[in-house]
User: Fold these one by one.
Assistant:
Number 1:
Amino acid sequence: MSEESSLRAAADAPGAPRPDTLLLVDDEPHVCSSLARILRRDNYRVLTANSADDALGVLAKNTVDVVLSDQRMPGKKGTELLAAVRDLYPNTVRLILSGAAEIQDITQAMGTGAIYKFLTKPIDPALLRANIAEAFSRAASLRATETPGFAARDAATGLPTRAYLKRLFPSLVAGARSDSGSVCMLMLRIDQYPNIVASFGQQFGEEFSRAVAAVLSRGLAQHYFLCPDGPGNFLVLTTDDDPTDRIAHIERSLDELFSRPIPVLDHRITVTASLGATVSAADEPQFDDLVDQAHTAMMTASSRGGATMQLYQQHLVKALRGKLQLESDLREAVAARAFHLVYQPQVEITSGQIVGLEALLRWQHPQRGLVSPKEFVPVAEELGLINELGGWILDQVVAQFMLWRARGLAPQDVAINVSPLQLRDRASFVERVEAALAQHRLPPQCLVLEITESAAIEQNEAIASCLAGLRELGVTLAIDDFGTGYANMSNLTRFAFKKLKIDRSLLPQGRDERSKKLFANVVAMARELGLTVVAEGVETPIELATVAAARCAVVQGYFYSPPVSPERLDGLLSARFPEA
């Protein structure tokens, strides 16, 4: 702080009226002195700083109404300084005084609300005084409209709040309108956030949000307005005369920012994002409408598997409403246990005997009819319902299997599908499996837990620990849908899997000798590892003959039986299919 500023500091004493305070920032002290001489006659309290870092130090100790900064300075540029001032002190009016050479950076900063006004060098003293006076009027208006309890900065992430962005929105739109530009609103959702909270807890989720916010802030906040919008969500706002190029630039920036794992406490987490974007001409866009549109587009991107971008279109609204209705109906169905189970036999080819069963979940919706598990199971995972639903399936299947055992009808084992989300809480899931086995007195080797190959290869300590706990219980572990993922044979030895279920996509097609050899080699390697191999999706006699020629002992598919109700299965369990 300059000597002149120190002499005036007494004005900050308790009870004294606070004078209008101006901060001048320039790396050349004589420039600050010249500007101060021009503005001193207007009775402002003038503070000075010779770098961006010095300016932030002055702002931390003083209430400043207006900042006037140079652009070219060692270290942080003026635009970087004013972006930080925008976030830290949103009611401080920010102006930049610079030459025309930096116009591109300055225009971008104005688009994010970092700069209220741009003044060009050299400037007429009278014009400078008029602009500074207008800036103080603007500061007074901001103070007058300040809402009690209004938070400009998010306590958890340190970013500006959505409320502050909404307050700033009209001035951003006005700037875009004057430049014949457009307003771009984007919403991004961290795809992994729900699973991270489910696996590690809410406190870890908050630490994760802070870490993501820090990464986004370093990469985006200088050029775009960024703020959190609920757990795992962020809003990005910008104005531009070429919105398509601007959205593409943001998408590339996110790819770069998330190309490396983000450290969170003792973990390193790989992150992807679902991005929704909407563009509006700067005539009369409404803030809440743009947020809703960006949210609709983001939800569409998320429903397609995440890690992608979707531009808002009107027809997406209908699709999103349908998804929201499905979510509501699914919550009610889980609470009411409005599901049923069917069972598909696994048949030993040489004897025609049913040696195993797979339990499959079905949902008969009262209006939509039969809803595919491929449609509702991902929604159950997203809503955090999968543990409750999976627990119900486990209890039902074990109880039904014990009824068959009591009547002497049960095959060797029965399988259920397990979501990776269930495996991320070892204590809860292992205890639930153990309790179900104990309650119904089912030998653990009779229960097969099928895990997709993608879950088996996931580098997740929680999943590895849970699989180890299940192995200790004595239940049978199986890899499901082998061939749809990386088809890596090394995965079979990591967790002592006992069964390998080969997906239909690997079944030889027609007379293709190469596909026959590939299938036979997979079967041979699995047999060498001591695994029971099950070929899924066998539907025709030709497919059955090809599978049998490869010495695959067990098949599951419509050739023998579709999935059927427990009542219909009674008749099949007491009989045998013709030998192949």
Number 2:
Amino acid sequence: MYEKAVSGIMLMILFICLLSVALNIQLVKSEPGTIIVPDDYPTIQEAINNANEGDTIYVSAGTYYENVVVNKTVSLVGENKSTTIIDGKGMAYVINVTANKVNISEFTIRNADTGLYLWHSGGHNISYNTIINNSQCGIHLRTSIDNIIANNWVENNGNGIELKDYSSGNTIINNTVINNSADGIMIWWYSTSIVEKNLVKNNNGEGVLVYRSSYTKITGNIVINNSGMGIWVRDSDYPIISNNTVAHNGIDGISVSLAYYPATVSNNEVRGNGRAGIYSYISNCYVERNNVTENREEGIIFYASGGYITNNIVHKNVKGIYLSFSLYLSLANNILNQNVYNFGVYGADLREFIHSIDQSNTVNGKPIYYLINKNSLVIDSANIGFLALVNCTSILVQNLNLTNNLQGILLANTKNSTICNINFSNNLYGIYIRDSNGNFIYHNNFINNAYQVYDMGWLKAHYSEAPLPSLNTWDDGYSSGGNYWSDYNGTDWYSGVYQNETGSDGIGDTPYVIDENNIDHYPLMTPYAITPPVPSVINATIDINPKALNLRSRGKWITAYIELPEGYDVRDINVSTVMLNDTISAEPRPIAVGDYDEDGITDLMVKFDRAKVIRYILDNIDIVRLYEKKFMTMTLTVTGKLYDGTPFQGTAAIRLIMPMPIGLRRHIFLI
């Protein structure tokens, strides 16, 4: 009995020892190790085949002609991406990743259809690689989620980086994607991701293309010189496109289209693109705080239902802001200046002219007047940048200078109004008419408009939704006359009601025909003399820094902060016209727009040369009196003009200090 008990105990002890050894062996096997290629295995694939989960495979410098399948969770680390090369031999892929949580870094990956293929997997980190010369794609994710693609150089592939088929949750950051033969970065089919701080340049398709991938965020990228769109988001809800520089792309800079839910396009620098700067064909798009400049067609174009265009600077484009067949848009605080045609609204149905556009929007420093459902008003002001009358009646418009817009005046469903003493010049359309009848239009100058008058009704034969042509009166009878038309080619040999009496009278002998129902019977041979009201001087608020000026100081600048009253914007100030006491010009730079005194009113900072200011002051004060009083106060006046020529003026007092030279003080003391 005793022997059996001892035997049982011994067997149990032996079993525990064997189990302990087995557990120790298993723990040793599970610890990640490092495999070196070619020291441990001659090829990368053999190293992977013999690796355990979590191992690091370190690949020494050299060229490896392989098609690598990564089916384990390992880290592939090259010695140096310039010298550690995996060549795919022209096959389908260089590296095909099917396991999860694989890290790949410091390789040149080249010469296959696809350089790096991540398939039905996720959690990878692909960073610091050079991926070049792959015919279809540099990096291709297919149903691959939650990856980081960072700091890679992707060049001379088909598409640069491509996400497809539910490859969501990825972050594409700090990559250089250049000179690819198709798109730079393509996100396709429910592959919501973040595209951030990449350089996307010189690709032969779109810079960044997003298709049917909602909630994608594109921010902080430089997207330049791509042949197609800079950034094109299509059929994708709730994208955010912000803080990008999008420049010199072949078609539109930023385009959002064909989605049900809104996009946000904000704080982008969009310049020099081949067509529009920002194009929206999407409902309720928010376009705000963008700087849109020097694009070859529109700065901002909307073809949409609902949307918000706010706080943008639109500068030196062919067309500034263009609303085309859109419904119920809201515009506020947009600054349009020096565009060939600054602003315009197009449509066929009356609803396409019903927008909320207030006077915080300016054209060359003058507010936009977009009037809807107004009756019995007189509009007589030099300070109007654009004028629209929508569904208005009995309006008198006179003494305006309307220039450089898509439409000099927009008349939509406006009746029984009078338009006279207006200069319409250098607009695309001098007057644009939609179903507006019974108006009197005379004693105006139509000069160098691409189309002096355009009636939407002329499209009725081709576009069933267009209204019937309008019928208006275009002259004030004989001998008061009609309008001056710069493209009128008639002569003035005769006079009289029927222009059949000998002798000229300043009225053309033949009518100016607008269409078969609209005729100026008495066109003027010379421009009608219009004297618009002289714009009053804007009272500006000026702060001078320093407030006390030591006339012996050697600082560089005298700084002025200029505030304008409500309804004007300091961004419309032409800095080249700013002067101090009509003598000293402001320096062209530095300048800045901000809120120096934190009073909630935007100001413009300009600087004057301190030495010039001190010299001017010394030439215009009594120095002896200054010595006697130790200080005195002087009023400085800052003047200038807005881009539209409207003058402004403001004053500020500055305290002058002139320390007496030591030698002179001794002399006075001795006396």
Number 3:
Amino acid sequence: MARILLACVLILACGPLCAQQSTYVWQKFADRIKASEAISPLGNDLFGDRVGLSKGELSFAATDLALPGNDSLRVALERQYSVFDRRWRTSSPGMMADWDLSLPSIGAVFASDWVVQPNVSHPVSTARCSVVGRAPVAYPFDLSDFWRGVTLNLPGEEAGEILVANSPVTLADGRTYTWVTGNGMTRLACLPTVKNGAGEGFLAVTPDGTRYWFDWMGQTDEGGLSESIYIPGQPTLYGVALKKTMLYATRVEDRFGNRVDYTYDNAWNARPRLTRIQATDGRTITLTYSGANISSATDGTRTWTYTYASTASGRTTLTQVGLPDGSRWSIQFQGFTQDGEIRYRDYTPGGEIVRTCTHNDVPLNIGNTFVGTLTHPSGAMGTFTMDIREHGRSNVPVSCRNVTTLVGQPNGSGNNQNDDVNLWAIKGYSFTLKQKRISGPGLATSEWNYSYVPGTSFYRYPGTTVQYPVCDWQNHNCSLPPCTSDSCAGASTTTVAGPGGEWVRYTHGNSYRYNEGKLLRVERGTSASNILQTTVNAYDLSLQNQVYPASFGESLSVNSDGFEAMFHRPAVSRTVYQDGTSFTSVTTAFDAFARPITVTRASAVVPAAPPPGTPAPTPQPLLATSALTVPGSAYTHQTFAVSWEAVADATYYVLESRTSTGSFSVRYSGAALTTSVSFAVVTSAVFQVKACNTNGCGEYSPQRVTVIRSSGGGGGIEP
């Protein structure tokens, strides 16, 4: 009865209001597609910027104060900021508004409080550690719409999902550790209670013997989630409120008994509120608040201050960090915090197909740029420009949910494709770093410009058709990867052009359940036609047990979203090609944790280019990107102009277009800077153009959209 009541409270059918307050499930696809493992600063990291190179994800990390002590336990105040879609965030839930503190924690996003279910036939439980279960979910939502498993955050390490250990271990403290991190190195056991709420907590122990007591709960709003179900004659919109619920460490202790305590004073279902960090050797950081945000921090002799501003969106933003010596950091992230929204239609115009299971609706603000700046106390300024781009995976199987069929008709007849959602995320739109610039008094301006080729694709198993995009499960296991070799595997590329003529191209694997997330190749030189050094990495992608297990545990994510967390796939070789010589490093023996114990290094004279069989680089642009102009809307059968700007050294241009459900095709190729087009059906026409010459073509322009509306003269609905 408790489970049924929970579903009734949280999942409701509702009217247009839901669409105005929450995100459609397919708009979360970008969250399901993990960034590559290559996350690093590029160029001068004076501003603490970190870039997820495969998708251009941008974040910042800053340490305002760190107190050295008599042991290795860290006592520091560290803050972090991430650029992401804030469309349905009406507030800034961090302890520093749109910035948050980097603290040891564990948690997840739920469509309820932190309760778990082993399966739908069991009641929900707050025994969130000893009961192996997932978040509860109710129709029409799927767990993959919001659930990414339980994530562990530890200082100095990348956050990652915890796994149900293949082999639980009992340590000297008598506890059984049933959870493990993806690298097999950190183990977690259960605490019987938490300090400010109901249910269990977690105890983590790292390889060096440091223990973390996760037993203080905090909760923040994650916005809402919507799904439209189109049943003929009965379209219904469902909504659910999401909560991010975390357990924070109140105690960290090393194997010698040295200890750091974290003190909080929030209720279990309120945003976290840290008030003190104190070590047994006397190091102390005390925090004071103004409203919900930290206003100052002190170590007893020095004080740091924090200033905030409101934005028109209602979200608060950190604008200044005052240092004890009177200098300050200035932060202007309104372009990210206030304007940082990826905007889609709030409703689907009657009868219009704007998206399908395999093609996303194009954001209404696809051509916008978003700018944030940081000013260092020295006066140096970092300017970061982002735009909206689509990133994803390749070789993703197609099998869609919500596909309907009219009674007595062939499969898929009468299906409204707007609500179709693929079981496995193919691609999604996200904020993407376009440019980083450093300038200031006495500094020569330096720029890093980023370009991307996402390399996305999907695969239909036999029996899965365009009209009926549902797996024939009786004859095929469509969850299996259709490609498990380098000969068919896909990849994405990111090219960075920096100051002084530096040029670097990164190739990341993105093939579904094969090489996704792995950095395959790095090429350095002055341009795509003058590559001076190439590094090729190879990995154990067999997913088979070796001396080490293929996986140290089982992911609780669903629909293969936990693949990268579950299968560590260690590097086995690295080869650098430079000046006609190859320099190779091969791991010939591993330990049980997939750490190298024997490495062989060798060099040889070879052709400057990598030998056959190594992944081929994706052709890259030789020219600048042209700016494209289209009208916002037009009518069926109406002729309208599409134009673009001239690009130096270009001799011709290629304009491509697609409808909201189709693939790109060439509309025009020639030397002109404009052409006329028309459409016979109601759709969203998407355009892109590239500049070309005899050496090749440049990057496609950012996509532009023209909404084609019915003129009443017989324009049909796009099939």
